[in-house]
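Quick one - inputs below.
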Amino acid sequence: MSSPPLLQIRDVETFYGKIQALRGITLDVHEGEIVTLIGANGAGKSTLMMTICGDPRARSGQIVYDGRDITRLPTHEIMRLRISQSPEGRRIFPRMTVNENLLMGAAVADPEHFEEDAARAFELFPRLKDRKDQRGGTLSGGEQQMLAIARALMARPKLLLLDEPSLGLAPLVVKQIFEVIKELNEKQGLTVFLVEQNAYHALKLAHQGHVIVNGKITMSGTGAELLAREEVRAAYLEGGAH
Amino acid sequence: MEYFVQQLINGVTLGSIYGLIAIGYTMVYGIIGMINFAHGDIFMVGAFISLIVITALGLAASSSIFIIILALILVLVCAMIISSVFGWTLERLAYRPLRGSFRLAPLITAIGVSIVLQNYIQISQGARVKPLQPIISGGHTIMRRVDENGEFVVQISNMQILIITVTIVLMTVFSLIIARTSLGRAQRACEQDRKMASLLGINVDRTISTTFVMGAALAAVAGLMYLLYYGVIDFYIGFVAGVKAFTAAVLGGIGSLPGAMLGGLVIGLIETLWSAYFSVEYKDVAAFSMLAIVLIFLPQGLLGKPEVEKV
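Output:
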């Protein structure tokens, strides 16, 4: 890779009070790639996602996005740099309609793009269109996940952070969501940083993969390489692919 | 019947004032989950600013209608702006540093801020009751009955018309801001999930400040109305009015905007009707008993949102 990475994470350490959640994470996300981070519950995946967004802030280390050091920026300013996150647990605004949730996603975007971007989101997830005026809290888990991704896309991000989009969803819906991620990456060149417990799907999709254990990256490689590794299969793919 | 209609008019007027104050309680509670007990004192500050500006302008009932209207608009704007500055400053100095602290901390601070504001006005404006000559007089007879007891006339004064109209207009504008604008959406987003709002690029601190400013501005309007309607104010009016408006907000369902308006109306009506038919001395007891009853049987208030939500 000749051009500098879109996102550079260097020796990042994050604490919750006295508890250290990240122990020196270093990784790169290059433009146009899907990079995935897999790991067990509590390994620090979501913490890394949130640390990129400045909440909690990294105690040490550096995060550079698009050539700019964002380590110390407040969250809302980071999110104005065309980084979007679809967070863990989806965090749909329950008492807002689907349309309003999308409007919130577009809060940092040019309002002129809204209609066009909403139409594209509905094309990606036709089920959301039928539920346009329904409150977010009444949607099913799968629909909420679709809405969370659609909302994140409304800001026209260069970098999309996806935190466990498959969590708690039916296999068919998971498949559908991963197809959309692939499509976004291939057709629109969207850069995706994906955090997953569902290692099989994530690694199949990803150009680059990393394994996080106890706040540290223990293995890195291309998606296919990691999928072939015995340790990965034993630890994260037990019970076979699903 | 005539007597009842008259009391209804009086009750709606009083309820309008309570409703305007209640909105500030309910919005701040909605967004940061805290009861701003100093909000009643912002209302009091608004009344004092209005009095000062009216006095400075030399406004009196003898001025022409045109001048009175113009001057009152000026008074209103001054009171709203200065009270907003108070509201903004309070949030910045007293509440924001405590965000993320334990829940009781901002509550206790709010009571402290309330004491500070009361004493500040007491010292700077004096402890005595301040009177204001009536500026808006006159009214309209809408019903008249003559019988063996004499004549009974139902009147709506121009002042009452003004209060009710201003309240309706402001509440409409306000509801539209909350429902339709990006600012209102940001406020609702912060109310529902502050962390997610910041992940969408919303400046949460600024949104909270704006909420305090909006609440303070409405309280200032209520302050001016109170001053014009009753003609006397002192540094302590914020306490009782504040507690009543707080009751209204809880009664309507704290966190709900239409609830605050409805709650204000209900409290105003209960108080007025109770005074009219039973005893003036016990009007506060009646209002607060109503609150107790509603809380026992309908803990989320009249229009409060049900807690059940799909996750």
